[in-house]
Amino acid sequence: MTEFLLSVHVLVAIVTVGSITVAASMFPRVALRAFGSGGGGGGGGGSSAVGEGRDGRSEGTGTAVLLHRVCTGYAVAGVVVPVFGIATGAQLGVLTDAWLIVSLVLTVAAAALLGLAVLPGQRRLLALAEGAAAEEEARPVASRLSMTTGMFNVLWAVVVVLMIVRPGSTTGA
Q1: Is 8 helix (H, G, I), strand (E, B) or coil?
Q2: Under a CB-based contact definition with an 8 Å cutoff, are residues 155 and 109 in contact?
Q3: In degrees rounded to 5, what are phi and psi of residue 52?
Q4: What CA–CA distance (Å, rounded) separates 134 from 36?
Q5: pLDDT tens-digit map of 119-134
Q6: How far apart are CA 112 and CA 152, in angstroms?
Q7: Are 110 and 152 in contact (CB under 8 A)?
Q8: Angle CA(113)–CA(38)–CA(15) in degrees, nearest 5?
Q9: How many percent of the chain have pLDDT more than 90?
Q10: DSSP H stretches of helix in the chain
Q11: Which helix (H) or strand (E) element contains residue 32?
């Protein structure tokens, strides 16, 4: 049973958290494309015009909406990660180990950062892109969002290291 719980925990973590970290990291740059000149990136073409999709949105806005949907959808599905993690920890008898407690605290912090800063920041940037805001107004929002997303990613990286190294664990590595 432990192997099953651990397998589900790891697989869901890879799929959900991995997808969120990639999509959230790409979001600010892609969303800035909706403002015309874009957020840098290696695109290259000679034109600064942004193409329109079938729904009338700019290419940058449509892609940003998709990335935001990935983040929100996988955030909901990601609730399974700590549920199976706690179940695995209970099976292994390590729920009171410091490495697991710290991992849970960091997971809660990452979830709070995602729900209270990253996702609302994405919605704000989308609202600016779909409204009549200027790129100069959106750039600080995108920069703040990039920083917040980076903090979210670092929290998950630390959790992964704690899960692998398990400092102080007596169950072996």
Answers
A1: helix
A2: yes
A3: -105, 145
A4: 10
A5: 999 999 999 988 878 8
A6: 9
A7: yes
A8: 40
A9: 71
A10: 2-12, 18-33, 59-77, 80-92, 98-113, 119-130, 135-165
A11: helix 18-33
Q: How far apart are the C-alpha atoms of 27 and 63, rounded to whole Å?
A: 8
Please check whether residue 12 is in contact with residue 78, taking contact to mean a CB–CB distance below 8 angstroms: yes
User: What is the structure's pLDDT at 156?
Assistant: 95
Q: Return the residue matching tokens 């869901």.
A: 12
pLDDT tens by residue, 17-29: 999 999 999 999 9
Q: In b/e form, how buried is each residue of 28-66, taking b as 16+ CB within 10 angstroms?
A: bbbbbbbbeebbeeeeeeeeeebeeeeeebbbbbbbbbe
Which residue type is seen at 3? E
Hey, what's the torsion of the CAs at 97, 100, 102, 103, to 10 degrees? 170
Contact criterion met (CB below 8 Å) for 53 and 62: yes
For tokens 């909706």, the residue is 34
